[in-house]
Amino acid sequence: xxxxxxxxxxxxxxxxxxxxxxxxxxxxxxxxxxxxxxxxxxxxxxxxxxxxxxxxxxxxxxxxxxxxxxxxxxxxxxxxxxxxxxxxxxxxxxxxxxxxxxxxxxxxxxxxxxxxxxxxxxxxxxxxxxxxxxxxxxxxxxxxxxxxxxxxxxxxxxxxxxxxxxxxxxxxxxxxxxxxxxxxxxxxxxxxxxxxxxxxxxxxxxxxxxxxxxxxxxxxxxxxxxxxxxxxxxxxxxxxxxxxxxxxxxxxxxxxxxxxxxxxxxxxxxxxxxxxxxxxxx
Amino acid sequence: xxxxxxxxxxxxxxxxxxxxxxxxxxxxxxxxxxxxxxxxxxxxxxxxxxxxxxxxxxxxxxxxxxxxxxxxxxxxxxxxxxxxxxxxxxxxxxxxxxxxxxxxxxxxxxxxxxxxxxxxxxxxxxxxxxxxxxxxxxxxxxxxxxxxxxxxxxxxxxxxxxxxxxxx
Lengths: 282, 168
Hints:
Chain A is an alpha+beta fold.
């Protein structure tokens, strides 16, 4: 009967005994070297390499997770930096544009000072719509004091003249248009002629006498006799001189001083310079 | 012997997991208390002297890696085993739901008892701030428990041990 009681309650009794042992351990503590410390020490010895392996594994896994998170972060940062770079590139492009515009305007201001005439700067906002003529569209018009027939210049040289105007825009006929003509002369030999445009793109010096000393590389400048362009403005340089053809005049090709396709700002002479009349006397 | 070896293996892995994974998870409450789950399984399904001693040993092993009062975890694991055993014998049920419930309350009770033993019962008045994390840990342990029970059952079958409650 007694054995049966113990057997039936062996779990409770064992657990109770273990609880008492536990309380004893808690109350007395376990000191190094004690018998009770040996199992603990042994277990620590057993589990430490496994724990180390787990830690290495978890560190590796943590490293992978961190690398992945960092990669995600780097991707986000990369996208942010790309956007920033695009913005900086845009800003830089605008700054370069402002610098170029500033330089052009500065050069035009110098030109204006050289001319000693009243002039207005204007931005080029377009070119000929059909391509059949060689014209430009300016962002300034009659409200800015522009009038048809005014000379349009660039810092490199002559551009053309205003042929049509509205309050806030105007059209410029370029000197290389086949309907354009201006009076000019060879700066070295003083040989005169009419600078005119060609249909097939280019400039020629018309009515240059065969007896004139005109050479390749000579500069052609405005004479001012047309009453539009001030005297002494560069039109271009002689590209070729043809003497073999029939007729009384030389065949002279001119390379324009201005690249009309690259024009961004121009200067419009609103009042003919004083020396225009002097030029007319020549 | 097979039961001892099986649980020893699970305890070693469980303790290694619990001590290593906090490196990965900054919020400790997210890590389930695997040892209590093992002890509850012992209490629910293995009724004998050896399971009681295994529970004690598991607690004592935990003491080797946790806490500053040797014997405290041994005491608590023995208590959890005893409660599980009593529930199993009185209710005559040992399914996963009962096991998860015991695990849930076992985690909370063990934590509170540990605080009370280590710092005195007056310290229990200061546990308000830790109850949230403690409840979360208990809930996670309860959620994980059925899976651990299933793993143990499968391992026991492989080892030729009875999976259901059996008096030894």
